[in-house]
């Protein structure tokens, strides 16, 4: 990074990776991560993963996603893989959402929204579901989670507590 007399910390790198990712400069963001003088944390790799989804770079997204799953013991991917091994299907939920006119907009989506299905299946009815992910949420996921909050009568918090969803409404008022 540019030397301006400030010691670069993980938050600074995460911000630059996020900016590069927003601009679609995924290779540059990946190069920055690899060349960092400090070990990148999960948030930095997650920022690149989110940018891969937004810019439909499935190949890099899979690579980074697998790295996240392997390196983060609490990443949703481990639970999703467990669901698949146990042959737990999320299709019933998808059929129910289609009854409410849900149509998936899958352009640029690297991983399914199975983490939400896992939360619905393994938490008490009516309890809060908290989904931790990158600061950005795609339009399709946002619409889906709004619908799920209404259909299943659940409170759902996504990201950094910016999105509080309940009864089909979000605290962001659909502007983020």
From TrEMBL:
<protein>
    <recommendedName>
        <fullName>DYW domain-containing protein</fullName>
    </recommendedName>
</protein>
<feature type="domain" description="DYW">
    <location>
        <begin position="115"/>
        <end position="176"/>
    </location>
</feature>
<dbReference type="GO" id="GO:0009451">
    <property type="term" value="P:RNA modification"/>
</dbReference>
<comment type="similarity">
    <text>Belongs to the PPR family. PCMP-H subfamily.</text>
</comment>
<dbReference type="GO" id="GO:0003723">
    <property type="term" value="F:RNA binding"/>
</dbReference>
<dbReference type="InterPro" id="IPR011990">
    <property type="entry name" value="TPR-like_helical_dom_sf"/>
</dbReference>
<dbReference type="InterPro" id="IPR046960">
    <property type="entry name" value="PPR_At4g14850-like_plant"/>
</dbReference>
<dbReference type="Pfam" id="PF14432">
    <property type="entry name" value="DYW_deaminase"/>
</dbReference>
<dbReference type="InterPro" id="IPR032867">
    <property type="entry name" value="DYW_dom"/>
</dbReference>
<dbReference type="GO" id="GO:0008270">
    <property type="term" value="F:zinc ion binding"/>
</dbReference>
């Amino acid at each position: 990074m540019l030397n301006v007399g400030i010691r670069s910390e993980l938050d600074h790198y995460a911000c630059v990776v996020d900016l590069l990712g927003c601009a679609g400069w995924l290779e540059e963001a990946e190069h920055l991560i690899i060349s960092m003088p400090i070990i990148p944390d999960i948030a930095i790799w997650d920022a690149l993963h989110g940018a891969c989804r937004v810019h439909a770079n499935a190949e890099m997204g899979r690579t980074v996603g697998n790295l996240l799953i392997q390196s983060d013991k609490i990443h949703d991917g481990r639970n999703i893989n467990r669901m698949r091994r146990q042959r737990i299907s999320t299709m019933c939920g998808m059929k129910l959402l289609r009854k409410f006119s849900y149509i998936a907009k899958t352009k640029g989506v690297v991983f399914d929204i199975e983490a939400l299905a896992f939360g619905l299946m393994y938490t008490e009815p009516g309890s809060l579901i908290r989904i931790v992910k990158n600061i950005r949420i795609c339009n399709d996921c946002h619409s889906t989670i709004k619908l799920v909050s209404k259909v299943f009568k659940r409170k759902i918090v996504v990201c950094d507590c910016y999105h509080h969803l309940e009864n089909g409404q979000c605290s962001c008022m659909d502007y983020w």
